[in-house]
């Protein structure tokens, strides 16, 4: 006669054994999830590296890339480039030579967005010129600034005509750009 | 006398630069003037205020202060941070020294002219020693916070007072230490502006006079640190001040263009106590007066409206009459326009470019005073821009119109202009011989075959112009007894035989161009030459001097002509001698050999040597009277001077052909609109 297992009571499992089973299951699930996450991270890292490598191929970025390694402190993204000196740039360019050998390295510097800065040679814009401009700005602000009570030529000379002993008409310039 | 068609030219867009600094040389009676474009000019007061020297400006050069040092040396300093010495013989920068304090706002020499003190942007005052061949840094004074905008030495040279923003500092010269600091501010409700001390002066009594941006002129006792007197003269800034030598009179200049005189007057008649009183107001300028000078007899002011005004003080002038007249100078005392008669072209010289124009033409005729319609408008043919920051010293176009030359401080350019139908091509002439630069005056020969270049130490170079486009150095003329100054005027005879050259020493040398030898020297006269020209037929050299005298010298005979002697004997008319501006151009009419055409800023004159000279009782400007008289009555009133004052201000006038003249005017209003903005003037009811 066939034995009907449905009539029989389930197997008796001890509490401890059951707990162990659940725990192992959980662990396995957790590990699987972690492995899944790591896989995704790895994928992302590989994609990032690819982009980085493409960027490194451009000689300009290679020159200004900071030296790799844990010692390099991360710089804020909006740090203005004119503050760098030419010597520091040269130092970094030397470091960039090591770039090609490294893989799996991501740098924030090379992926920063376009800042609002311009790189200029200090030789072209002399310090004297800067000082002179500041001085001229001060002079202009004092003599022609908002408190200066200046007036357009049209208004000024019309008033002169009115103040003359023989009064004349107001001045109207044919060329409107004269004021 | 003649009827002329007049090409009335008003398209020369010259905008003179404003006057920025003035420095008066007391013993030499010369005034140094610096403009906002960096140009430096010297006016000789003894030679009727003639502008005897011009050093053109430079885009890179700013002049904020000018002062004379020992030995008649001229120094300038500006926002470029350098102290520059000017070579007044070679009309260029002699050398520059970096101040070391950033932009320089002010500079003053001590009473002996052996030390220069500069006030810098970084708040320091530096002392420089004037040594032979240059200047040497001596030491720094105590550095303050805030830029030093003005400074002044005490007459004993023991201390210096300096004005800054909201403060005045007084320094002991020998120790360099600050001995006093005074706060200058404006205590009125709701006013948050800083008080800028624009100018300062120290009197022998120890009183410090300042002028500031709130329109005040203040007198301080610097030792006590107290304010003695305060006068508010204007609602806008008082930018400049100058004290007379006797320290009893002060002139101040304001942003509105007004200048005021302060005088030290007794409180009551006969009282010993004196006080400063604002006496005379003047409104000679329309724009800011950034420089003033108080000479022993006059108040001198320079404004951003490009005018230099000399106001003699009535009580100081010995001879009443023309000596006491107000003098106003706006335009240079030299030609900026060159005319190619045959080609009917005009060359305009700007500070950094040249414009070549072809005159228009008309096919109509008309009566006296009528305006004729043009059938062809004037054309702007070529614009030649000078590369680099240097301004142009001189320029010229050949009579045929095919050659144009100009010179800057370090470069000389020669161009060939070719006219093919409607198109124009400009080609630079290569391999120009190396000459000592700059060239101070250029003149083409009448046949356009040679170019004469006025150079340093009285020399003149002769360049032969070759077709299809080249040149060769032929000869250099040197004055027989040497000359430290540069040649500033040239004249060539129509037959190509003679060349006349005037140097800064006012000696006129005549050279023979056929045998390349010095021919003769015109007898010396104690005044500057303002214009000279050689008559095409007689080869007489006609000379105009800055005291308005006229001479005619026969070159072949090496002596003054009989007509010239007659002019000297009878004397020129008083009204002629009392003209304000010098004659800048003399020319002739080949069809009328007895005519001399000349002009100054305000009149054009045809001098007919065949007519009698007027004496002082006759009316000099009698053209309008003559027109009203019938033919028969006219001949009794006719005299040699036919003057027209219709065209003014006249920058240039020339005869194009026997029936037409060209007059280049520059109405003052036409350029005033392009100056920096003036201050608003208020008036009731407007």
Structure characterization notes:
The complex is a heterodimer of chains A (179) and B (686). Chain A has helices at residues 15-56, 59-64, 86-96, 127-144, 153-163. By secondary structure, chain A is mostly helical. Chain A has two domains: 15-109, no CATH class; 127-178, no CATH class. Residues 69-102 of chain A have low confidence and may be disordered. With 686 residues, chain B is mostly beta strands. Among the domains of chain B are: 251-329, no CATH class; 528-600 and 604-644, no CATH class. Chain B has a four-stranded antiparallel β-sheet, with no helix packed on it. In chain B, a hairpin with a 3-residue loop joins strand 26 (289-294) and strand 27 (298-303). The longest helix of chain B has 9 residues, at 562-570. Chain B is globular. The A-B interface holds A 128, 131-132, 134-136, 138, 142-144, 147-157, 159-160, 162-163, 173, 178-179 and B 62, 79-81, 102-103, 105, 121, 147, 193, 196, 213, 235-237, 255, 286, 288, 669, 672-681, 683, 686. Chain B: It holds the Pfam family WD40. Chain B: This is UTP4 protein.
Question: Which terms summarize this structure?
Answer:
heterodimer; A: 179 residues; mainly alpha; 2 domains; 0% strand; B: 686 residues; mainly beta; four-stranded antiparallel β-sheet; 5 helices; 5% helix
């Amino acid at each position: 006669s066939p034995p009907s297992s449905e009539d029989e009571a389930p197997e008796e499992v001890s509490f401890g054994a059951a707990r162990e089973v659940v725990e192992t299951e959980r662990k396995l699930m957790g590990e699987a999830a972690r492995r899944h996450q790591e896989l995704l991270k790895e994928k992302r890292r590989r994609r990032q590296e690819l982009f980085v490598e493409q960027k490194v191929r451009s000689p300009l970025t290679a020159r200004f890339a900071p030296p790799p390694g844990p010692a390099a402190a991360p710089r804020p993204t909006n740090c203005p480039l004119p503050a760098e000196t030419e010597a520091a740039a040269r130092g970094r360019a030397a470091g960039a030579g090591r770039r090609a050998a490294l893989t799996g390295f991501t740098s924030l510097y090379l992926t920063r967005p376009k800042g609002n800065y311009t790189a200029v040679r200090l030789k072209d814009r002399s310090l004297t010129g800067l000082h002179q401009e500041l001085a001229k700005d001060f002079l202009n602000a004092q003599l022609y600034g908002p408190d200066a009570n200046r007036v357009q030529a049209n208004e000024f000379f019309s008033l002169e005509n009115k103040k003359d002993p023989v009064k004349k008409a107001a001045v109207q310039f044919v060329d409107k750009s004269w004021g | 006398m003649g009827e002329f068609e007049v090409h009335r030219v008003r398209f020369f867009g010259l905008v003179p630069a404003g006057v920025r600094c003035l420095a008066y040389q007391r013993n030499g009676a010369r005034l140094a003037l610096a403009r906002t474009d960096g140009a430096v000019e010297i006016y000789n007061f003894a030679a009727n205020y003639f502008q005897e020297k011009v050093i053109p400006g430079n885009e890179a050069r700013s002049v904020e202060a000018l002062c004379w040092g020992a030995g008649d040396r001229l120094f300038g300093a500006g926002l470029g941070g350098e102290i520059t010495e000017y070579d007044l013989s070679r009309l260029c920068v002699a050398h520059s020294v970096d101040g070391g304090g950033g932009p320089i706002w002010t500079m003053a020499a001590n009473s002996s002219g052996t030390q220069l003190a500069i006030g810098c942007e970084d708040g320091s005052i530096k002392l420089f020693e004037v040594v032979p061949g240059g200047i040497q840094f001596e030491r720094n004074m105590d550095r303050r916070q805030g830029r030093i905008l003005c400074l002044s030495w005490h007459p004993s040279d023991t201390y210096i007072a300096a004005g800054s923003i909201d403060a005045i500092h007084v320094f002991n010269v020998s120790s360099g230490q600050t001995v006093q600091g005074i706060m200058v501010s404006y205590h009125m409700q709701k006013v948050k502006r800083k008080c800028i001390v624009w100018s300062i002066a120290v009197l022998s009594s120890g009183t410090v006079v300042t002028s500031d941006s709130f329109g005040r002129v203040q007198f301080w006792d610097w030792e006590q640190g107290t304010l003695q007197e305060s006068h508010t003269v204007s609602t806008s800034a008082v930018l400049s001040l100058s004290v007379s030598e006797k320290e009893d009179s002060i002139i101040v200049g304001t942003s509105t263009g007004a200048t005021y005189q302060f005088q030290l007057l007794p409180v009551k008649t006969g009282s010993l106590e004196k006080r400063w009183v604002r006496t005379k107001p003047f409104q000679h300028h329309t724009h800011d007066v950034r420089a003033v000078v108080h000479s022993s007899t006059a108040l001198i002011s320079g404004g951003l409206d490009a005018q230099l005004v000399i106001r003699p003080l009535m009580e100081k002038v010995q001879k009443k009459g023309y000596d006491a007249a107000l003098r106003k100078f706006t335009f240079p005392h030299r030609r900026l326009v060159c005319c190619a008669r045959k080609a009917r072209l005009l060359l305009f010289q700007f500070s950094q470019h040249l414009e070549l124009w072809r005159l228009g033409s008309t096919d109509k005729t008309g009566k006296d005073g009528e305006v004729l319609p043009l059938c062809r408008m004037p054309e702007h043919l070529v614009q030649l821009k000078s590369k680099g920051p240097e301004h142009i010293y001189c320029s010229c176009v050949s009579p045929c119109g095919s050659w144009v030359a100009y010179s800057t401080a370090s470069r000389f350019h020669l161009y060939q202009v070719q006219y093919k139908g409607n198109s124009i091509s400009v080609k630079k002439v290569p391999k120009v011989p190396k000459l000592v630069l700059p060239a101070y005056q250029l003149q083409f020969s009448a046949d356009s075959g040679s170019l004469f270049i006025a150079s340093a130490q009285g020399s003149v170079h002769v360049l032969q112009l070759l077709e299809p486009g080249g040149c060769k150095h032929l000869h250099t003329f040197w004055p027989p007894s040497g000359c430290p100054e540069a040649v500033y005027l040239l004249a060539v005879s129509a037959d190509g035989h003679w060349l006349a050259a005037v140097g800064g020493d006012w000696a006129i040398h005549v050279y023979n161009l056929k045998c390349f030898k010095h021919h003769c020297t015109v007898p010396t006269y104690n005044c500057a030459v303002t214009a000279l020209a050689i008559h095409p037929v007689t080869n007489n050299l006609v000379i105009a001097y800055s005291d308005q005298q006229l001479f005619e010298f026969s070159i072949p005979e090496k002596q003054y002509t009989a007509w010239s002697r007659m002019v000297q004997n009878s004397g020129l008319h008083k009204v002629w001698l009392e003209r304000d501006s010098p004659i800048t151009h003399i020319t002739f009419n080949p069809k009328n050999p007895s005519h001399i055409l000349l002009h100054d800023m305000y009149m054009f004159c045809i001098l007919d040597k065949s007519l009698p000279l007027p004496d002082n009782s006759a009316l000099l400007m009698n053209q309008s009277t003559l027109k009203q008289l019938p033919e028969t009555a006219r001949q009794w009133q006719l005299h040699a001077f036919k003057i027209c004052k219709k065209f003014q201000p006249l920058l240039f006038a020339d005869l194009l052909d026997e029936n037409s003249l060209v007059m280049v005017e520059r109405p003052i209003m036409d350029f005033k609109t392009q100056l920096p903005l003036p201050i608003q003037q208020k008036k009731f009811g407007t």
